[in-house]
Design a protein that fits this description.
CATH architecture: Sandwich
Order of helices and strands: HEHEEEEEEE
Helix content: 10-25%
Radius of gyration: 15 Å
Structural class: mainly beta
Number of strands: 8
CATH class: Mainly Beta
Low-confidence stretches: none
Length: 119
């Protein structure tokens, strides 16, 4: 994610260590977030998951809210101790932020670099 943000010239992109998968959500109106970001991060953590066919849902290990001038970035972090492999084929991110519910599928075959999943 950091590399993608740098390519887009966002030098203030949140950093993610190599032990986590990360999904960044942008475009959420500030008024949908609570002033107490720690409490909000806990709520968001409970309301998100990565879903893989035939496997148990994969919950985030943590959620971070980064307040920015151009709007908040909500960063969902998933421990790589639960591995996502090519055999998963499709992973769907589902989350709820306030009354906003959404889902986004990711196809592992579209995320391959040098013959390996680049997640």
């Amino acid at each position: 994610m950091r590399e993608a943000e740098l390519k887009s010239r966002d030098v203030d992109a949140p950093t993610v260590d190599e032990n986590h998968y990360a999904i960044a959500v942008r475009g959420v109106p500030r008024n949908m977030l609570k002033a107490d970001t720690r409490a909000m991060e806990g709520e968001l953590k409970k309301q998100a998951a990565l879903k893989r066919d035939g496997k148990k849902d994969f919950k985030p290990s943590s959620v971070e809210i980064h307040q920015r001038d151009d709007g908040p970035i909500i960063l969902y972090l998933f421990s790589k101790s639960t591995e996502i492999t090519k055999s998963d084929r499709r992973v769907e991110f589902e989350a709820q932020i306030g009354r906003l519910k959404f889902a986004e599928p990711f196809f592992i075959e579209d995320m391959v670099y040098d013959g390996k999943p680049a997640l």
